[in-house]
Amino acid sequence: MNRHNLKHPHKELRKRLGTRFSTDDAVRDAHARDASYHQGTLPDAVAFPKTNAEVADIVRICAKYKIPIVPYGTGTGVEGAVVATEGVLCIALNEMNRILRVSPDDRDATVEAGVTRLQLNTHLTKIGTQLHFSVDPGADASLGGMVATRASGTSAVRYGTMLDNVLGLTVVTADGSIVQTGSRARKSAAGYDLTRLFIGSEGTLGIITEITLKLTRLPDAVASAVCAFPTVAAAVDTVIKMMDTGISIARIELLDELQMDAVNKYAGLDYEVAPTLFFEFHGSEHTVAESSEIAGKIAAMHGSGDFRWATDENERKRLWQARYDSYYAALNRRPGSVGYVTDVCVPISRLAECIAKTKALLATSYLIPSILGHVGDGNFHVVFPLEPNNKVELAEAQRLSDQIVDIALEMDGTCTGEHGVGVGKRNALEKEHGEAIDLMRAIKHALDPQNLMNPGKVFLSPQT
Amino acid sequence: MNRHNLKHPHKELRKRLGTRFSTDDAVRDAHARDASYHQGTLPDAVAFPKTNAEVADIVRICAKYKIPIVPYGTGTGVEGAVVATEGVLCIALNEMNRILRVSPDDRDATVEAGVTRLQLNTHLTKIGTQLHFSVDPGADASLGGMVATRASGTSAVRYGTMLDNVLGLTVVTADGSIVQTGSRARKSAAGYDLTRLFIGSEGTLGIITEITLKLTRLPDAVASAVCAFPTVAAAVDTVIKMMDTGISIARIELLDELQMDAVNKYAGLDYEVAPTLFFEFHGSEHTVAESSEIAGKIAAMHGSGDFRWATDENERKRLWQARYDSYYAALNRRPGSVGYVTDVCVPISRLAECIAKTKALLATSYLIPSILGHVGDGNFHVVFPLEPNNKVELAEAQRLSDQIVDIALEMDGTCTGEHGVGVGKRNALEKEHGEAIDLMRAIKHALDPQNLMNPGKVFLSPQT
Question: Is B334 helix (H, G, I), strand (E, B) or coil?
Answer without folding.
Answer: coil
